[in-house]
Amino acid sequence: TFLIYGAAHVAIIGSDVLEEFSHSEIYSPIDLKIGQCRLVVATTEEILCDEDPLTWSYVRVATKYPNLTSGHFKKRGVHADCIKLNGAMELAPQLGLCRRIVDLVSTGATLKANNLVEVETICNVTSRLAINRVAWKTRPKLIEDWIQSFREVVDATNNEV
Q1: Could you report the per-residue pLDDT of 131-148, keeping only the tens digit for each?
Q2: d(C-alpha 125, C-alpha 113), whole Å
Q3: Coil, strand or helix: which one is 42?
Q4: CA 105 to CA 118: how far, in whole Å?
Q5: Rounded CA gap, 90 and 102, in Å?
Q6: Are 126 and 38 within 8 A, CB to CB?
Q7: Exposed (0-12), middle (13-18) or buried (19+): which is 93, by Cβ within 10 Å?
Q8: Pair 122, 68: CB distance under 8 Å
Q9: Is 84 helix (H, G, I), strand (E, B) or coil?
Q10: Residue 72's closest CA among 17, 26, 19, 18?
Q11: 12, 60, 62, 158: least surrounded by Cβ within 10 Å?
Q12: Using one digit for the tens of pLDDT, what is the confidence trace for 6-57?
């Protein structure tokens, strides 16, 4: 929000947030290759024993990402009723709110601790450098210097690995 409305000129934002909001005022020129995780569909093992995810035609899903979630399921011909939550997503199935969640996963430990298993990955997520387009037009030298500095660090880091 700060970036979209010009209160910030440059930010580091997860690719999940960039894709969820997909705003034309934000340009994202560099993948910083940090904060790597994935956005996944998860459910309980017992649901997976009873149902084949390929046969789902309707799902109710708790998620912080209703646009990414509904888009993902729409591509598969599945209607997704998305319940927007911010945090503690893995509790939603235990509380009877829904049978599936879409959430960020790094190691999978939180899913396992809540008796959930990954069904499929929607997308891989990393942190990105994001730029307000107006700031880039009005302060091109400053913004280009920032971009170049970030590029050099990312390139140097990749060459070390």
Answers
A1: 999 999 999 999 999 999
A2: 22
A3: strand
A4: 9
A5: 9
A6: no
A7: buried
A8: yes
A9: strand
A10: 19
A11: 158
A12: 999 999 999 999 999 988 899 999 999 999 999 999 999 888 888 888 888 9
Q: Give the strand order in the sheet containing 37-44.
A: 79-84, 58-63, 100-105, 37-44, 116-125
Dig out the tokens for 88 from the structure: 């503690």
Six-digit token pair at 102? 């879409």
Torsion over CA: 98, 106, 70, 63 (sign): positive
pTM for this one?
0.87
Q: How far is the C-alpha of 32 from the C-alpha of 5, rounded, in Å? A: 23
> Reduced to 3 states, what is the DSSP secondary structure of residue 92?
coil
User: Tokens standing for 4?
Assistant: 């979209």
* Host H or E run for residue 127: strand 127-132
